[in-house]
Amino acid sequence: MNNNDKYFKLTTSYLIKKINFCSKLILFIIIFTYTLSFHFLNDAFYKSVQADTTISQLVPDQSFDTGNHIYPLEANQNSALWTNIGSAETVETSTFSVNLVNNKSKSAGYALFNGAIDMTQKVSFSGNFSLQANSSTDPFAAGDSLGFILTPKSTDFIANNLKSNLAADGTSNVVGKYLGIGGLSDSIFMGRDLYQNSDVDLDGSGTENAASNNVSIRQTNNLGELIKQAYPTTSVPNTENMKIDWQPSSTLTNDKNVTGELTYTISSENGGKATTLSEKITVARSMSLGIIGSTGGNFGRLTYSSTEDEFNAYKGTQSVQVNYLDQDTNQPITNFSPSIIKANVGDTIKVLGKQLRDIVDINTFSFLTPEIPGYIFVSAPPLVVANNDAENNVINVTYKKLPIGKAHFNYQYSSDVVDQSILLPTINDTEGEINEAVIMPELPNLPDNYYISKVVTTDGQQYATLKDAISGEKYKNQELHFTLIVSKVVVPTTSDNNSSKQSSTAERKNKQGKQTSKDSTTVDQPQEQETIKKEAIHKNEKPNSESNDTFKEVNKEIDSPLKLPLKMPTEISQMPQSSVVAINNEQSKYPNVSAHNLEIQVAGTAGIFAGGVVAIGTITGFNKFYKFLKIVKK
Hints:
Radius of gyration: 50 Å
Strand order of the largest sheet: 3-6-15-8-9-10-11
Largest sheet: 7 strands, antiparallel
Strand content: 25-35%
Distance between the termini: 54 Å
Number of helices: 6
Helix content: 10-25%
Number of strands: 30
Shape: elongated
């Protein structure tokens, strides 16, 4: 084998190994991506049916929506979404199963779905029912009723109605012949009416006041009374599966009710012929779902279990009004209108204050209260959203009005001001929350020639300025007082002593001028010149009265610096030594003049010298850099 063949063989082997490695890597990436996508989508779906754990900020006069308005397809199988009332007992949780009544007479049990159904959307679900008579050989002598109910009332109302709605003889006005919907206005029963009562069951077949195999759709009126006739009914053998289908057709203009067709199908598990009942009815937009089993003189075992059929339904929603109230008056706080939260029936709504913003409960929808100036959050009870109960779907958020501190300010003449006839301006008070810094007021201008000489507080403390007086001061429960003492600028008169000083100064200058030597070269001295410099004075705050004698005019200070000559006389370089001595003598008289001029000369010369050095250094540096570049190029 020659070298070319060996090289070809090695190259081919290497390429095959690389291809195998790349193929495995690509396969791994595909599997990993698929697995990750599956878990991500699964998690996303799970989160979509859970309560939103984020905390939203409420804003007055605005609406909010909790979202999450669709039930998962297996919701009817989740035992956590059902609440048992009366004699009902859960027997299996994997697929929800419950004994509504277990061989007891005159008993009733409800399994109530925790949420509600949005009747503006299509609805479809089913369940398995079974009955076993114990009081008779007749299989239908197992009780009074067994089936589904739909009602606009909330689950709490249903539970209270079962306990409290009793006739004078102690019998229930809810179950028995009332099929579990007695006392529930505008409600529907769909299922088996196991006893033909002559006073309320005017339609249907069978012997009166005896066990019956009738299946019916029954309703109550707006007073919760059972409608006695003109209802769909038929006779059906003992079967197990019952299904509900709802098809909405129109929503009424009042936006509270919806019209549609309700279909109730009864079929056998063995696949026999199904029986269907349907009725066009008007219902509330949101209806609570429940299962009822009740017994009377006839009793037995009545049970329900969920099916694996899909639970197609949207969640019924209600509006929750959030009010912002003053705790002391129990009235709405001005300019803070209620917020509205659209929430699912059965949701728990919590409204939290700022200090509780870190509390999050995965089983609730949490909102933060707005911060209201001058108030502090006190409380807001959590709310479980009830079905069609606007009166109770209200959260009252209470606030405590913070106490407001006040600070008073007033001008007052100093005792040494002779003329106090000019009326001093009024200063507005300030307000602020307790323990907050005192606010600086707007100070009105004082009359001309008047200024604030000091500020006195209630406890007698004195300060140079109002800013100093309120620095670090905070509002308290008691009111604060600040008195701004006003003094008048005093213009001092010229005294004899000052006049004699000025005269002696002038004489000394003249005398010095006469004593100058003829032979010496003289240097012109700068003439003294008075300049007036303005002083920046705080608004309404003039210098202390003790220093008033230094002022000749208001807001002005007299200063007399010596004017510096623009340059030294050129004759100085030609002067003899005796002249230099004379100049030194003159400098001793006016040390600032000569010293300053010499400093200017030295500084100027040094500056020129330094500038030259820098310039030469810069040029030299460029030359060296240029030579370096030439070497590099070569």
